[in-house]
């Protein structure tokens, strides 16, 4: 969003720098997460590095850290210390369970948070015949916590704009992940009888599967029209939502009697004609060739030591500003001397000893 972002890394670098795919030692996974950020390598256990960070603070609007609570205090770089140097600082701390409380100092990565938050068991409850939670390869908790951090930071900056006051933003990965469990949080308080087969699931076609999202009365009617089964609209098993929910398995069986006579593309065309929200199942490689994404300018090209690669731009557009990822991914410590020299920290804090 136009900000100058300085990423402070330990001398050995962010662990994501070693993640595949690697080209000439440069990780595109790291690049997608860190494109446009300047890299400063400092050992924050050393007093000289801590002093260098403090020297940077007068020029900084926002500090973001995701250490376990207590680590920044041991470095002498916790919020109270930084606030004393820069009173209007917005300081965002992302942790597994929040900055205070009996679980605050527990270690956390996304897979552990998925289990702790109820997300994994909630997801498993929608999978028929399953008694073991899924393996984890998509890190929902990381992304959603970062999204809430973004919202908290922007809110704090707006508060500062109006009052001149900075503040701390305390983001809990556990609570962030809980926000996507709407029905589960409510039925945990007000238990309901089992609802039958899940409403949203794959429908078999002649050559694969398709996902119709029938979430309203209108989309149910449109589904019936697409399948040539307008009798469903008055069928006592399906006419009213509670009955339709209880007999959802019967509805899907009858729907598949139609859908399995067609290819996935033919089913999609029928759903599109009647306005049923739906999609074939796509790989990410297929998705990246989508003309809609090309039209939106969804990707930016980034350059690093391994060449060029594509990363996602922010998923929103602003009518009055240019929103786009910057086209470089920094080598480890590439900007250390330049950033600290500009802050007057190289000579004052014996830069060579801070590394």
Oligomer: single chain
Q: Can you count the beta strands?
A: 12
- Radius of gyration, in Å, reads 26 Å
Spatial ordering of strands, largest sheet: 5-6-7
Overall shape: elongated
What fraction, in percent, of the residue positions are helical?
Answer: 40-55%
Poorly predicted runs: 351-355
Which class do the helix and strand fractions yield?
Answer: alpha/beta
Q: Element order, helices and strands?
A: EEEHEHEHHEHHHEHHEEHHHHEHHEEHHH
The end-to-end span amounts to 30 Å
What's the overall average pLDDT, rounded? Answer: 94
β content, as a range?
Answer: 5-15%
Characterize the largest beta sheet: strand count, sense, and whether it forms a barrel: 3 strands, parallel
Helical run tally: 18
Can you describe this structure?
The protein has 355 residues and is of the alpha/beta class. Helix content is 41%, strand content 14%. It has 18 helices and twelve strands. It has helices at residues 28-34, 47-56, 71-74, 79-85, 110-116, 119-125, 140-163, 173-178, 182-189, 217-226, 241-246, 248-259, 264-274, 284-288, 291-296, 336-342, 345-348, 351-354, and strands spanning 5-9, 22-23, 26-27, 37-41, 62-65, 90-95, 167-172, 203-204, 209-212, 278-280, 299-304, 307-312. It has a three-stranded parallel beta sheet with strand order 5-6-7, sandwiched between helices. A hairpin with a 2-residue loop joins strand 2 (22-23) and strand 3 (26-27). The chain is elongated, with a radius of gyration of 26 Å. Mean pLDDT is 94; it is low at 351-355.
